Amino acid sequence: MAGFKTLDDIGDVTGKKVLVRVDLNVPMSDGAVTDDTRIRAAMPTIRELSDKGAIVLLLAHFGRPKGAKNPTQSLSLVIDAVIDVLGHSVMFIPDCIGEGAKAGVAVLAPGDVAVMENTRFHPGEEKNDPAFADALAEVGDLYVNDAFSAAHRAHGSTEGIAHRLPAYAGRAMEAELKALDAALGNPAHPVAAVVGGAKVSTKIDVLRNLVGRVDHLIIGGGMANTFLAARGVDVGKSLCEHDLVETANAIFDSADKAGCTIHLPYDVVVAKQFAPNPPTRTVNVHEVAADEMILDVGPAAIEALGDVLKTCRTLVWNGPLGAFETPPFDTATVALARTAAALTREGSLTSVAGGGDTVAALNHAGVADDFTFVSTAGGAFLEWMEGKPLPGVDALRV
Predict the structure, then answer these.
(1) 303 and 230 within one domain
(2) Most buried residue, 114, 194, 331, 391, by CB count within 10 Å?
(3) What is the pLDDT of residues 94-150, one digit of tens each?
């Protein structure tokens, strides 16, 4: 892959100690992992290196122990889940640096896999302390980063170590970087972006970056209400950041200059209370009553947005169009997601989506598997959409 070394470039790894940065920061309840998606994402890299005879040493953080050892945030708690997914034994090494780490590694044979203790038990990890990165590098011969979700942080195990050992992108990282390049790096135009969510304030940088990069910007969720208010629409009791109307107008101006069309809903679904299945009305945006709130995009706007996607070659999606967790306000998100999935299946659209709410919404719509790529990296995906450098990615560039 251009600009990065991958496992294809790694050569003979028999007996080599390969430090692999993965994401094992998984949700747990009553001592058991409740969602192993992130563990599964690391498996292609782990299996490939193990099959080639490498000694695979997994580096990861777990929770926020703030640089001190905390048994409730030990990676020993996820070992059983890693063993279940991998299908064979995995050793736990009770430190990631120093003599304790080296002693644990010394007993491993080619093909063995070990999880090393939480990198964040050391204050040098989050500070990206050179001495900590040196100590990590002493444990291994090669470094592979397979944790895009942690790539927006310049930490010892994501950035510092990459300058001290031969560094490569793992298979999950490689897939992520290829997808992001296809979505915004060198996309096929026209490009559409769907940006939803509750507040403009959390996505100002995303919107500012996108208007200069995409041909169509579709704004949904509570954010759309702020943009409607900037256009003089009375949004009633809807969630709306009235103090950001000038910001919205500046984004409209930037879009005009860049030749980007901003799409806002012109019909909406409103209710007097935000609760499951309340009485609703579908109205033109200019007909929202003072005691009503906009909770979803209406059917006419959804059909029009679907027509926009049919003219596009590339789609980037972050955030739902309505209050999708609460029925019936998931209708617009589900409908547009299914249109995007159908266009992707027939080969006319490259679709890349990311962010926690987005993944949940696409799973709810039953179409996550039909998108070209769905990123589970929340913060890193958002910072990439903002056009910010990602230190863990930049450190891998050749």
Answers:
(1) yes
(2) 194
(3) 999 999 999 999 999 999 999 999 999 999 999 999 999 999 999 999 999 999 999
Cβ neighbour number for residue 89 with a 10 Å cutoff: 10
Same domain, residue pair 290 and 327: yes
**Tokens 């209050």, residue?**
323
**Which residues have a catalytic role annotated?**
38, 199, 356, 379
At residue 276, the 3 state secondary structure works out as coil
Token pair listed for 394? 């930049």
Residue 377 lies in a domain: yes
Predicted TM-score (pTM) of the model is 0.89
Phi and psi angles of residue 25, each rounded to the nearest 5 degrees, phi first: -80, 75
**Judgement on whether residues 164 and 191 belong to the same structural domain of the protein:** no
How many Å apart are CA 269 and CA 64, to the nearest integer?
Answer: 40
| Residue 392, in any domain of the structure | no
Cα–Cα distance between 373 and 183 in angstroms, integer? Answer: 10
**Are residue 256 and residue 168 in the same domain, yes or no?**
no
DSSP tag of 187:
P
Residue at 97: amino acid letter: I
277, two tokens: 């299945």
Phi, psi of 285 (to 5 degrees): -60, -25
Q: How many CB atoms neighbour CB 310 within 10 A?
A: 12
Give the span between the Cα atoms of 204 and 227, in whole angstroms: 12
Residue 90: φ, ψ to 5°: -135, 130
